[in-house]
Design brief:
binds protoporphyrin IX containing FE, alpha+beta, four-stranded mixed beta sheet, Cytochrome P450, two-stranded antiparallel ribbon, Cytochrome p450
Length: 498
């Protein structure tokens, strides 16, 4: 009897709290949204759906351009309209990042530094300005960088020539090495062998880090679930540490230990070729003492951030591009004919060549829309109370851009589920871009690697289609994996020489 009374009391308290909380939200003019339960908010619906893309789509259809909900202790607002995302993400006050336990762990494992992706305030502003300037100076999207990409693409093409028709050939293994080596050359100048076990383990860890499952998600959002999720906690900790150790090795390999570092630093300032790669530029900035947030401690996490953001994203986009060419052979054929017709033989076209390739450009934009590899971007955090579309948004609320919804809503596209590059071709056969395709997000925290990513995808896909016809080897499945970065399902492709 006592037990039933207790149960009833708990249920009544839960219902009462839920109702009071909903009344409070309406009174404060929070954006509409799904029912939030005490302690857990709307998490059960997200966990039951094994990810946020499905529930976010349903809630956007139901509540319109903006909805809000709670995830455990965190309040979140989701934006579903491209113009609204642009307007809100251009405000300084929306430039913070949610500080989850995993972010604190990464920071602790890297000498309490902050990197760039999850940094905030003055530290973020200085590191972002430095990164944009450095990427520009290193020639992103221009000839210098393109030459490096051409060298790496050469190795990938060789692997396809050698093994592209083998039944069990997995093109993703040499592709990973190619993409990882491009970003690695930008950062440190180092190259890795595609069979280097240490490097492959690092790459696996980076991919794992970006592919969340429900357990990892809950571990971060609801601290008390850690009691039940010890295994998950252990694996997150192990992986985060291994990544930090690998990056530390990269720094040591380049600059030696701390004493040698000081020596190298003083040498570097006297040289005029310090712009040679990202790490040298960073060290030079520390030495120059012009930016207060730059310290030698900060180098590791900065390199880790750039590698994590720059590797799996370009990688997954290419997986999607290759798979979509198999799924839509008529698109593949049209791109091949256009490349054959316009680009001189034995030349890999690059963005800056400005070849008139409207159908190819339309295909690349459609790949970005269709793949939507970062479906909800990276969360922002509101640094001061504000309003969005007239709704109250308190300090510390997460603001999320529902990019997948924008890319797939019938409000903005006809037949969004169909991969159709011709939606970006006008009546005169010219390429017309669209501000509703926003894979790199928009505003103050827009991706800093956009030019590099675009150059890589443009050159690698063109080089492959110039030389091979792609055919799926097995069942075709166009469903996305889940996580912060969403990949294709595992697949094999035959690369048939043309
Ligand atoms: C197709 C490839 C890529 C896609 C789709 C992509 C997408 C994104 C998105 C959606 C964001 C979040 C922006 C926001 O918070 O509003 C982002 C941030 C970022 N990306 Fe990329 N990215 C790609 C490639 C790259 C590359 C190659 C690099 C590095 C070389 C890079 C470095 C970064 C960094 C450092 C940030 C954080 C910027 C900040 O917080 O200020 N990304 N990216």
């Amino acid at each position: 009897m006592d037990f039933i009374i207790w149960l009833l009391a708990i249920l009544l308290t839960a219902c009462g709290t839920t109702v009071c909380f909903e009344i409070y939200r309406r009174w404060r003019k929070y954006a509409p949204g799904p029912m939030n339960y005490p302690l857990i908010g709307a998490l059960p619906k997200i966990v039951a759906a094994h990810g946020i893309v499905g529930p976010f789509r349903a809630w956007a259809d139901r509540y319109g351009d903006v909805f809000s909900f709670r995830m455990g202790p965190y309040e979140a607002v989701v934006l579903n309209d491209p113009a609204l995302i642009r307007e809100v993400f251009n405000k300084d006050v929306v430039s913070g990042r949610p500080q989850l336990p995993i972010i604190k762990l990464r920071s602790e494992l890297n000498g309490n530094s902050h990197g760039i992706i999850m940094a905030e305030g003055q530290h973020w502003r200085e590191h972002r300005r430095f990164t944009l300037q450095t990427m520009r100076d290193l020639g992103m999207g221009r000839a210098g960088m393109q030459q490096k990409i051409i060298e790496e693409v050469g190795e990938f093409i060789d692997a396809l020539k050698k093994d592209g028709l083998r039944e069990d050939f997995d093109y993703k293994i040499p592709l990973h090495a190619t993409v990882a080596n491009i970003i690695s050359r930008v950062l440190s100048g180092a190259r890795y062998d595609k069979n280097d076990a240490n490097f492959l383990r690092f790459v696996d860890n980076v991919q794992d880090a970006l592919r969340e499952d429900n357990a990892k998600f809950l571990w971060n959002i609801l601290p008390w679930t850690r009691v039940f999720l010890r295994k998950t906690q252990k694996s997150v900790f192990r992986r985060t540490k291994e990544i930090a150790v690998f990056i530390d090795g990269v720094c040591k390999q380049k600059f030696g230990d701390v004493t040698e570092q000081a020596l190298k630093l003083s040498n570097a300032t006297g040289r005029d070729d310090v712009t040679v790669d990202f790490m040298e530029r960073y060290v030079h900035t520390v030495q120059a003492k012009q930016l207060s947030s730059f310290t030698m401690n900060g180098l590791g996490l900065m390199v880790e951030d750039m590698f994590e953001a720059g590797f799996d994203t370009s990688n997954c986009t290419l997986h999607w591009a290759f798979l979509l060419m198999c799924a839509y052979p008529e698109v593949q054929k049209t791109v091949q004919l256009e490349l054959d017709h316009i680009v001189p033989q034995n030349t890999i076209p690059s963005v800056s060549d400005n070849y008139p390739l409207p159908y190819y450009e339309a295909t690349l934009l459609e790949v970005h829309r269709f793949a939507s590899i970062v479906p909800t971007g990276i969360g922002h955090r509101v640094e001061k109370d504000m309003t969005i579309n007239g709704y109250f948004v308190p300090e510390d609320t997460w603001v999320i851009a529902n990019l997948h919804y924008v890319h797939f809503s019938e409000k903005y596209w006809s037949h969004p589920e169909v991969f159709d590059p011709s939606r970006f071709i006008d009546g005169e056969g010219k390429f017309v871009t669209s501000d509703k395709v926003m894979p790199f997000s928009v505003g103050k925290r827009r991706c800093v690697g956009e030019a590099l990513a675009k150059a890589e995808v443009y050159m690698i896909l063109a080089a492959v289609l110039q030389r091979f016809t792609l055919q799926i080897n097995g069942r075709l499945d166009l469903t996305q994996t889940r996580g912060l970065v969403c990949d294709t399902q595992h697949h094999l492709i035959n690369f048939i020489p043309r």
